[in-house]
Amino acid sequence: MSLELLDVTVRLGRGESRVTALSELTVSFAPAALTALVGPSGSGKSTLLAVAGALLRPDAGRVLLGGEDIAGLSPAEQARLRRERIGYVFQSGNLLSGLTALEQLLAAASVAGRSPRAVRARATELLSEVGLGHRLRHRADQMSGGERQRIALARALLLEPDVLLVDEPTAAVDRERAAGLVDLLAATTRRHGCVTVVATHDPVVVDAADHVVDMARLRTGADSPL
Ligand SMILES: Nc1ncnc2c1ncn2[C@@H]1O[C@H](COP(=O)(O)OP(=O)(O)OP(=O)(O)O)[C@@H](O)[C@H]1O
């Protein structure tokens, strides 16, 4: 299932601080492929992820997931789409306070309508794969930013979404860990066939990516869409 943004414009802020974060941007992202989204700070990478994940409604343009315009859905339909088909791994982690690493994954599975018991073994395995196998029963709110983001990554991979949106997954980890996380992301993406878009400044991610989209070139029209 492909993901396409067609002539998308997003304006953010109010009054004098109002900026056009995305201007008539057109780009498509392939399924079963990891796309690295690169570009200078402020070029709109995070904004693109928010629009692609139906967290932000564009001022103009369409966002097609498998041919359906998700920007035009009602708020309730968008909420359902976000819950069932989109995985987010943002730097804040968006975790639930008070829960352990393992409970974060089991709770997410439960909200998505899956039996926590059925996914427990896979959840444990994924937490080990992101390097947190020894901290399954530690509270996530007592972990570092990089560790919390790795929990969010394991949680997203457990739910096997159609679209996986990841913001700077390697910013808060050491180089060796970064390579391991990117390999896991790429392998899972190819296995499950999801559209994975990773906003990054990290050459490790760019080297492992199937495609690279450069925001700076898109904005000036120098890049043709994939
Ligand atoms: N809430 C907001 N209100 C006003 N302007 C905003 C808001 N959020 C972002 N912007 C602006 O929109 C533009 C795009 O920001 P965005 O965060 O998408 O860039 P980015 O490429 O992800 O940057 P970075 O690499 O630093 O994370 C920037 O000019 C930014 O200052």
TrEMBL record:
Pfam families: ABC_tran (PF00005)
UniProt keyword Aminoacyl-tRNA synthetase, yes or no: no
Endpoints of the signal sequence: none
Cellular component terms per the entry's GO annotation: plasma membrane
Keyword Transport included in the entry's annotation: yes
Domain of life: Bacteria
Family matches, as InterPro entries: AAA+_ATPase (IPR003593), ABC_transporter-like_ATP-bd (IPR003439), ABC_transporter-like_CS (IPR017871), ABC_transpr_LolD-like (IPR015854), MacB-like_ATP-bd (IPR017911), P-loop_NTPase (IPR027417)
A GO MF label: ATP binding
SMART domains membership: AAA
Domain annotation ABC transporter: ranges: 3-226
Keywords: ATP-binding, Nucleotide-binding, Transport
Entry protein name: ABC transporter ATP-binding protein
